Amino acid sequence: MGLGLLLVSLTPAAAQLFETKAAQAFMIDAETGTVLFAKDADRPMPPASLAKLMTMEVVFNAIKSGRMTLDDSFVVSEHAWRTGGAPSGTSTMFAKLKSAIRLEDLIQGVTVQAANDGCIVIAEGVAGSEANFAAQMTERARQIGLTKSTFVNSTGLPADGQQTTVRELALLALHIWRNYPDLYRYYGQKDFTWNKILQRNRNPLLAMDIGADGLAVGASEAGGFGIVGSINQNGRRLIAAMSGLASDRERAEEARKLLDWGIRSFQKTEIFAGDEAVGEAQVFGGAKSGVALKAKGPVTIFLPTANRDKVTASIVYDGPVAAPVEEGQKVGVLRVWIGDTLSQETPLFAGESVGVGSLPQRAFDAARELAVGWLR
């Protein structure tokens, strides 16, 4: 047995369709999950303040599950005040030492002002210490499918062993938008006043007329300037994550350009209907030599409007598939590439049942497999 590969309908992949100054970048369509752009998207990097997305995911999950409420309050410790408050010289909501702050206000401090003191107050209130809370962040990351992100603190301040990727940051943002719509709105808040100090949202995309409503920015000496941005235009939502930019101005401009290109340059396309056979997998020892493969419903993807020749698709399965094959049995995946970016993977299932073949049929398949199986 070996790896089955079947090319379908489209032509060979080519280079990226878009260029960016970012060292790492990743952009996804929120509705279909289509990956529109990827550049070194899986290289580990320090998250800086973008780690606060994971801090908020843990908080939002606790609120959704009823373990916390927006009216819960937490006390500002000296550690939170010195490490993330006014004396720290870092992003802060200027929380007063030993004051008690409602969780909703802390959330606004973090989402609008990237407040380090707000993160630490939450972490200590929820888990007793930042280290314990960071362990919860990493555990929660694994639960939602982020395999490379590891957190050491709640703020994203430099720490050995703390890392993420732009792909996982974008997927985390998509998860937050999908699962916490009532809480996601805080990311689009333009400003927030605490301790009589008004601060505007640090996300530069919110000031642009592009439909932006989130999410976060970060910067570190090791990783450069980064951003996770989300825009919603005419019912289409795109989420992009970028890192390794040289300045806050370059970060804003490159993020705007990437998101604008994503909106203008792709068209939603149904490439296979709901009951349409996508292809066929070879069957070993069956009453038939092949089985039709179908997806669970239509296969929809955003394809480039001007470069359809840059798209390729293939069916990949471990085969030939041994009989008997049951209708609905998962057999493989359909992979669609845009340029050199793996854009979408769709599970494929047997569209019919194939019983065990007769003795002569099985003997023929065995002889054929012996003759050509080594080529796979």
UniProtKB/TrEMBL annotation:
Pathway field: Cell wall biogenesis; peptidoglycan biosynthesis
Domain of life: Bacteria
The protein's name in its UniProt record: serine-type D-Ala-D-Ala carboxypeptidase
Any GO BP: cell wall organization
Xref: SUPFAM superfamilies: beta-lactamase/transpeptidase-like, Penicillin-binding protein associated domain
Organism: Mesorhizobium metallidurans STM 2683
Record function comment: Removes C-terminal D-alanyl residues from sugar-peptide cell wall precursors.
UniProt keyword annotation of Repressor present: no
Its EC number(s): 3.4.16.4
Keyword entries, A-Z: Carboxypeptidase, Cell shape, Cell wall biogenesis/degradation, Hydrolase, Peptidoglycan synthesis, Protease, Signal
Ranges for domain Peptidase S11 D-Ala-D-Ala carboxypeptidase A C-terminal: 266-356
GO molecular function list: serine-type D-Ala-D-Ala carboxypeptidase activity
Catalytic activity: Preferential cleavage: (Ac)2-L-Lys-D-Ala-|-D-Ala. Also transpeptidation of peptidyl-alanyl moieties that are N-acyl substituents of D-alanine
Pfam families membership: PBP5_C (PF07943), Peptidase_S11 (PF00768)
Family: Belongs to the peptidase S11 family.
